[in-house]
Structures are given as structure tokens and as C-alpha cells.
Amino acid sequence: MTARPPADFHARARAGWNPPPDWIIALADACARETQAGVARKLDVSGSLLSQALAGRYAGDMAKLEEVVRGALMGENVTCPVLGEIGRDQCVAEQKKPFIASSSVRTRLYRACRAGCPNSRLVKERS
Fold first, then answer.
1. In the predicted model, is pLDDT for residue 123 greater than 70?
2. DSSP state letters, the chain
3. Distance between CA 72 and CA 65 in Å, rounded?
4. Measuring CA to CA, which residue among 107, 32, 39 is closest to residue 72?
5. For residue 2, what pLDDT is reported?
6. Dihedral of the alpha carbons of 113, 116, 121, 122, in degrees to the nearest 10
7. How confident is residue 127, by pLDDT bands cut at 50, 70 and 90?
């Protein structure tokens, strides 16, 4: 049984992007340091999504993935009107959470994310 050669994440990024943006390079760096599966768990996405993104073939919401990578791997922050300074990845995660009336913070976050927060990727709800 022969061992499989290690994946060259940087070569995959260079082949898929011309040139690769800084966040794709950060993603390739993280996958090379850890494992693709480990980085996928950290970003709360699938390994196949990361593989497709590195190759420049991901058909999903690439801007959302970019925000998650910038927050989780590159340390970029945004100012949340409810929580203050938070990572971009936490901002994306908070937007996905459901309304919970029993938590005043969750209620405020749910409303702020849908009421014109400049960081929100959600469609503004009608009044």
C-alpha cells in the first residue's frame, strides 16, 4: 500500500485563480498547516466546499465564504450594533441563528441583522 502524496493547496489555488485573492491564499495556508477537514470544521463548512473554492469552482455564495475566512482565519472584525467588535465569521454565524424570544440579546441581534445593519447579508424585512 503506497501513501498518498500530500495535497498541494497552494498549487490548487494558483490553478483555479489567476491570481488567487488574499483570502484564498489564507485558506490554502490554513489547509496546508492543518488538514482540509480540520479547517472545514473550524469554518463550519464541508471539505468539498473548500476544495471547490480553492479550485475556483465553487458555485455557491463565494462572498459569504470569503467573509467567514476573513473572520476566522485572517482576524478581520466588524462592528455589530448589538455585540460591538466581533469577527466577520461570528457576524455571519449570528445572522443564521433563529429568532429566540426568551433571549433579549438574540432578539436584538435578530432584529438588528434584518433592519439595515451594514454588515448584514440578509434581505431587509418589510414593516
1. no
2. -PPPPPP-HHHHHHHHSSSPPHHHHHHHHHHHHS-HHHHHHHHTS-HHHHHHHHTT---S-HHHHHHHHHHHTT--EEEETTTEEEEHHHHHHHHHSPP-TT-HHHHHHHHHHHTT-TT--SPPPP-
3. 10
4. 39
5. 57
6. 70
7. very low
Q: What is the pTM of this model?
A: 0.82
Domain residues of the chain, as ranges? Answer: 9-72, 77-114
Q: What pLDDT, in 10s, does the model give residues 83-118?
A: 999 999 999 999 988 888 999 999 999 999 988 899
Q: Are 58 and 65 in contact (CB under 8 A)?
A: yes
Q: How far apart are the first and last CA of the chain?
A: 64
